Amino acid sequence: MALFDTLRLASYATVLAFSLILLGISGYWVSQLQGVATSFATSSSFSLAVSVITWAFMFPVLLVSILRRGSFLSWVAIELGICGFLWILWLASAAYTTSLSAGVTLNCDLAYSTELENFCRQYQAIQAFSWLNWLILFAYIVLVVVFVVKAINKGQSVWTMEIADLSTAGSGPGADASTIAASNYTSKTHQPSHYQQPQYTQSAHQHPQGVAQV
């Protein structure tokens, strides 16, 4: 398996795993804080929604790219669009969760009760996993853009290319201008459609005319 495919699989698997963890914690917060702490309940609801959206988009794209060839879900343009959209959502979720602490560094060990300590650590987990998902998606998008630029510089059309073929397109030999010109010259070399056979003229033998008179 190519390095790009390995990094892509690792990025998808990590983001999906972190989203699943956030799905559980946020769902628990929504059930416990509804009507009690409005700000934290709203933040957990948003994190819950982003986690569900992440699974709804990333899991089918990953599954289709592994099991099926030729699907539009495997296009580079589609993958960049989905990852960019999720990157924005995770940035908003992480920033919203971080804003609730108002810049205060939380020390959960100083909590005066076990329940409050668990609440503090769950909040830190939501905050940390949200930023990690944002960072992983950002790094993956940069990686894809680098391969896209390399493939475009080699004269290849990449937007409707399958994401699995992007690493090959970006690292393979490019078709630069001299190569294209040489190829066109070779293909357009004049080939005569017929060969003109040399014409041979047969010399006319002149026979002496005259009747011998006896």
UniProtKB/TrEMBL annotation:
It comes from the Eukaryota. One of its GO terms (cellular component) is membrane. Keywords: Membrane, Transmembrane, Transmembrane helix. Residues 16-142 form the MARVEL domain. It holds the Pfam family MARVEL. The chain crosses the membrane at residues 12-31, 43-65, 72-92, 131-152. It is a multi-pass membrane protein. Its main location: membrane. It is found in: Membrane. The keyword Kinase does not apply. The keyword S-adenosyl-L-methionine does not apply. InterPro entries: Marvel. This is MARVEL domain-containing protein. It comes from Rhizoctonia solani.
